[in-house]
Amino acid sequence: MTLQNILPWIRQARQEGWAVGAFNANTLEQAQAVVLAAQAEEAPAIIQVSHRALTYIGSGNEIQGLKYIAAIGKIAAESVAVPIALHLDHGTEREVLQAIALGFTSVMFDGDGYSLEENISITKRLCEAAHSVGVCMEAEVGEVPKPDGKAYDQAAITLTQPEEAVQFVNATGIDTLAVALGSVHGLKTKQISLDLECLAAIRSRVSIPLVLHGSSGVSDRDIKQGIALGLCKVNVATQLNQAFTGAIRDVLHGDDGLVDPRKYLAPGRDAQIEVVRERIRFFGVSGKAK
Ligand code: G3H
Ligand code: 13P
Ligand code: ZN
Questions:
Q1: Can 110 be counted among the known catalytic residues?
Q2: In whole angstroms, what separates CA 31 from the centre of its chain?
Q3: pLDDT of residue 206
Q4: Which of 17, 47, 154, 191 is the most buried (most CB within 10 A)?
């Protein structure tokens, strides 16, 4: 299929109590793993690419990275018969505009570092640009930290305040809202409990679909409850990297003489397919593209 705007599936997920998986890719093989897993599970899915992944793919030039990924995402989506969206994850203002122009079907502006007023004003502008060409728009209120291996203070995380969420959604016109419920990006073990009361309070005031970032570090019990309480898009990155890199590490450890990248990248891709399939089943999406 051609790349799809995934919003109808996210809205269906909200009605029926499941969540669309959004899976980060840094390499060609990781993007392929997402669509092959989605196909195997007959599920809609989202390939997403972060600001730092774009910088990596574009060898330091994130706009070049966007161009590569726009082409790869299009071909990956067309290689399967299930709906696939291509999403810009944690984009800057400039990246969001470029992604829209290059055919991404979904974009996120990351207003981290801006005041609420600045975040609203930039998001509103970008949302108008996205909607003018039928692209789905996500933005965030509150903080899901990106400690990148450094220490952080769990108690100091700014959760999404329900009233700010209402103000933000009403003022910007976004389609989906990323909420901060205590999760943290990049954790390698499932050690976080979400603030589900906060989620319920947001849900009672905000009707658009809600997005969970940093799911790799969140207990599966809380992800499940969070989905029941209205999380309709769940972002997964670190769990995929663990599977991909772990399989590659095993192959390389077992064979000092191996030099052909295909011989270790293929097992990495296969291992990631299994994790994406497991997450798709866990989020309740299997069979939804039938
Ligand atoms: O939210 C972003 C994802 O965790 C990917 O992180 O900045 O390492 O690509 P990254
Ligand atoms: P994790 O790396 O913790 O899975 O976070 C994914 C994410 O939120 C991408 O936006
Ligand atoms: Zn994120």
A1: no
A2: 12
A3: 98
A4: 47
Q: What residue owns the CA closest to ligand 1's atom 3? A: 237
Backbone angles phi, psi at 24, to 5 degrees: -75, 140
The answer to whether the beta carbons of residues 45 and 122 sit under 8 Å apart is no
Pair of tokens at residue 58? 């574009």
**Average pLDDT for residues 169-188, to the nearest whole number?**
98
Alpha-carbon distance 70 to 63, whole Å?
A: 10
SS3 33: helix
Mean pLDDT score, 116-144: 98
| Cα gap 30→58, rounded to integer Å | 16
Q: What's the rounded Cα separation, in Å, for the pair 111 and 192? A: 23
Closest atom of ligand 1 to CA, residue 213: 1
Q: Pick the ligand that lies closest to the CA of residue 50.
A: 1
Atom 7, ligand 1: residue with shortest CA distance: 52
Write out residues with Cβ below 6 Å of ligand 1: 24, 50, 52-53, 89-90, 185-186, 213, 237
Pocket of ligand 2 contains residue 203 by CB under 6 Å: no
DSSP string for 113-177: TS-HHHHHHHHHHHHHHHHHTT-EEEEEES-----TTS---GGG--PPPHHHHHHHHHHH--SEE
Residue of 26, 52, 240 with the most ligand 1 atoms within 8 Å of its CB, for mutation: 52
CA 211, CA 284: separation in Å to the nearest integer? 15
Distances (CA, A) of 158 to 64, 80, 149, 161, 185: 33, 40, 19, 8, 14
Q: Which two tokens stand for residue 10?
A: 């996210």
Summarised one tens digit per residue, pLDDT across range 239-252 is 999 999 999 999 99
